[in-house]
């Protein structure tokens, strides 16, 4: 998880100098810096208290709301940032050990599951504010699920282009199904009063992937026809 935190900390660097800037470009940077600090708070398991966040940034609570909108809006943007850093970390880990010829999607997906399941700050958010957390994490039009689905679809297209993978259903639909399946088991305690199960999530995602995809079989050497 350190790679996820490192990315967030880099984004949150020097928040005060950015927040107090007045140019148009830096106005966008101010908002991004607030989101990065909020993401660090969520990662660390701290409740996203707007007054406390304003105090850390050195601005008023009114100014904070004006720059980032509502608390739920800020949480959505913070979780998206954490999701993006998680995806980057998962790719880096799998690509560092991926054997030649192995697909990108399944291995990266396994690391996504592991990183999410070990995110103590996210677990704290799900425990403390389950309804809000699920609404932000699983909204099909929200910031988090859309970036997850787009990322998995991009991996599928990469496997299609590099390895000739054939998907029996449209890649976007398969990506959506894989993400939703992962959510069902990684957030099972909140969704269905069941224990989160990263192993079952990975097993079922792999089964769905195998059933929905075909890797072209290389033709073997031509054999001479038998004589008369």
Strand order in the sheet with the most strands: 1-2
Low-confidence stretches: 12-21
Count of individual domains: 2
Structural class: mainly alpha
What is the CATH topology classification name of the largest domain? Tetracycline Repressor, domain 2
CATH top level class name of the largest domain: Mainly Alpha
Largest sheet: 2 strands, antiparallel
State the helix count: 13
Shape estimate:
elongated
- The topology string of helices and strands comes to HHHHHHHHHHEHHHE
3D architecture notes:
The protein has 228 residues and is an all-alpha fold. The protein has two domains: 2-71, no CATH class; 75-214, Tetracycline Repressor, domain 2, CATH 1.10.357. It has helices spanning 2-11, 15-19, 24-43, 50-57, 61-68, 71-97, 105-117, 120-128, 130-138, 143-163, 171-186, 188-192, 198-212; strands at residues 166-167, 213-214. The protein has a two-stranded antiparallel ribbon. Helix 1 packs across helix 6 and helix 6 crosses helix 7. The chain is elongated and about 60 Å long. The protein starts with a helix and ends in a 14-residue tail after the last strand.
